[in-house]
Amino acid sequence: MKLYAELPARRTRQIVADVSAVAWTALWVQIAYLLHQAISALAKIPDQVTRDGNSLRDSLNGAAKEAGKIPLVGKELGQKLADAAGVAQSAAEAGRTGSETVGTVALFTAIVVGVAVTVPILLFWILARARWVARARTAVLLRDEPAGEDLLALRALSTAALKRLRQAAADPAGGWRDRDPVTMKALATLELATLGLRSR
């Protein structure tokens, strides 16, 4: 199985395309990571609310216990402080929920950006490379078979641009019908060159 062309010009283009695809993917993975980090940094605010809420709740609960020891008004004062501790607990829960929401948004945004930008390019690159590998494999097998030259020449006749056909032979169709060896060789070489492969 061939992964790269034999002719230098086509092989260089393939290598550049491969390196570019990998570099593009790495770049956008890094961008998605930085975006995730930037959005995640916003969680510092709800995290602080959670910490402050928990601290205030603990303080109010402690004060409520102590207030309960005061004669006459202790029970009512302790209840008020306990209620305030409940409000602080609610604030802490809201901060925790906010932090989780920010984390979810950061992760979702990074995934969407990374996938939306890299996957189409990678799919196009992989499909193009797979198509070339399959065509090159078939062409190499035909090149190495005595009867393969005829099929390669026919393929060139059916797919190559007219200008390139006329450059390869004065009468490409007539030469192919007459099985002129020079024309057959030129057409087969043209088809192989289109794939970046050398003639036999």
UniProtKB/TrEMBL annotation:
Alphabetic keyword roster: Membrane, Transmembrane, Transmembrane helix
Superkingdom classification of source: Bacteria
Transmembrane segments: 21-39, 105-127
Protein name: Transmembrane protein
